[in-house]
Structure formats: C-alpha cells, structure tokens
C-alpha cells in the first residue's frame, strides 16, 4: 500500500487516510482534533482521568445537546 519515499509515521498515516477516504468515497476523519504523545506514566494518568471524567462534565459543556 505505501509507495512513498518518506517513511515517517506522519507520511504513513497520511497515505492510510487518503486510501480510506478514496475507498469510502468521502472523508471519515475528524478535523481539528488535539493530538498529544503520552511520554510518561504521569502523563498517561492525567489523560486517563480526563477521559473517565469527561462524561460528568457534559452538562456544563455549551455544545452538548441538552435533550
């Protein structure tokens, strides 16, 4: 599948995303997301807490559907 000369993670992911988009016929990728590399255990714990606590904060989120 990968035929480019650059073998960085970014270039491999880009080629993968292009292939999936062409196969699906439309883009299935989220735009403008926050990306962060987990560098140590403390970083992992902070992110894990954010993920597990996130639903509790939805009521305060101005973009959350209040139905």
Describe the overall structure.
By secondary structure, this protein is mainly alpha-helical. It has one domain (9-60). The protein is 43% helix and 0% strand. It is built from two helices and no strands. The protein has helices at residues 9-24, 41-53. The longest helix is centred in the first third of the chain and has 16 residues, at 9-24. The radius of gyration is 17 Å and the shape is flat. It starts with 8 loop residues before the first helix and ends in a 14-residue tail after the last helix. The mean pLDDT is 85.
Task: Give me some keywords for this one.
mainly alpha; 2 helices; 67 residues; flat
SS-based structural class? Answer: mainly alpha
Integer count of domains: 1
- The overall strand count is 0
Biggest beta sheet summary: none
User: How are helices and strands ordered from N to C?
Assistant: HH
Number of helices: 2
Mean pLDDT comes to: 85
Radius of gyration: 17 Å
Beta-strand percent range: under 5%
* Overall 3D shape: flat
Low-confidence stretches: none
Separation of the first and last Cα atoms: 44 Å
Helix percentage: 40-55%
Short description:
This protein is mostly helical and 67 residues long. Helix content is 43%, strand content 0%. The longest helix has 16 residues, at 9-24.
Question: Which helices and strands appear, and what pairs or packs with what?
Answer:
Layout (H helix, E strand, L loop, with lengths): L8 H16 L16 H13 L14
């Amino acid at each position: 599948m990968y035929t480019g000369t650059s073998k960085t993670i970014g270039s491999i992911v880009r080629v993968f995303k292009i292939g999936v988009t062409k196969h699906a016929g439309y883009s299935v990728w989220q735009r403008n997301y926050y990306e962060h590399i987990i560098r140590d255990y403390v970083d992992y714990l902070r992110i894990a807490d954010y993920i597990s606590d996130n639903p509790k904060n939805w009521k305060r989120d101005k973009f959350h559907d209040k139905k």
